[in-house]
From TrEMBL:
Organism expressing this protein natively: Paenibacillus albilobatus
InterPro entries: NAD(P)-bd_dom_sf, P5C_Rdtase_cat_N, STEAP_metalloreductase
Protein name: DNA-binding protein
GO molecular function: DNA binding; oxidoreductase activity
Keywords annotated in UniProt: DNA-binding, Oxidoreductase
Annotated ranges, domain Pyrroline-5-carboxylate reductase catalytic N-terminal: 2-94
A family per Pfam: F420_oxidored
Length: 221
């Protein structure tokens, strides 16, 4: 499969590198191709570098791994025509570091970045996911508790969410029961809000290899 990854930071490089390693064809979209020369050499023959527009056109499925503050602009550079009717797996978070750590959210409570992206690109199948995780766990969940922890997704298109579930299991080794569908894209308000707490945890634990697990009691009828 051809996959576009928008964003050339650590998250984008991690996602694209893993996909290339398992034999998928991947193009990273970036404003600065020169910074990815070393990455491309390591990623090998399944990896390409292009503009946001080129990566969006290349991908049958597209990951948005751009910084939250620049996500909508990056997606506009990618172009609605290139993204139309495609699944966009949105990893972005509306983080504002201007007041230090932990960050605050520049959109919250009554809206989310996921919703803003969906409103801006109504013909794109936005599925919010992987945004609550450190990059190493996104592509290798079994390195922690044998994968017994949770990933949250949400979006308006049920078929798109089901395909994303299947792809995340196939590509990255997520267990089916670990992926929790939180409902429509409004649920991004909650999953994005996890990030300030999660980044505080990073400081306390001193490691990026951690995640949340939902433990619940089944109620008998």
């Amino acid at each position: 499969m051809k996959i576009g990854v928008l964003g050339s930071g650590k998250v984008g490089q991690t996602i694209a590198g893993k996909l290339a390693a398992i034999g998928q064809q991947v193009m990273i979209g970036t404003r600065d191709p020169q910074k990815l020369t070393e990455w491309q050499q390591k990623a090998g023959e399944n990896a390409w570098i292009g503009s946001f527009k080129e990566a969006a056109a290349f991908g049958e499925i597209v990951f948005n791994a751009t910084s939250g503050s620049g996500s909508i602009e990056a997606l506009q550079l990618a172009g609605s025509e290139q993204l139309e009717k495609k699944i966009l797996i949105d990893l972005s978070n509306p983080l504002d570091f201007s007041q230090g750590m932990p960050p605050i959210l520049f959109v919250s409570n009554t809206d989310s970045l996921g919703e803003q992206i969906q409103r801006t690109f109504p013909d794109v199948k936005v599925v919010k996911g992987l945004n609550t995780l450190p990059a190493p766990l996104m592509v290798n969940p079994t390195q922690l508790a044998d994968g017994d922890h949770n990933l949250f997704i949400c979006g308006n298109d049920n078929d798109a969410k089901n395909e994303v579930k299947e792809r995340l299991q196939q590509w990255f080794g997520w267990k089916s029961g670990a992926i929790l569908d939180m409902g429509d894209i409004k649920a991004a308000r909650g999953t994005e809000a996890i990030l300030p707490f999660s980044m505080s945890l990073w400081g306390v634990l001193g490691t990026p290899v951690y995640n949340l697990k939902v433990v619940h009691q089944s109620l008998s009828k």
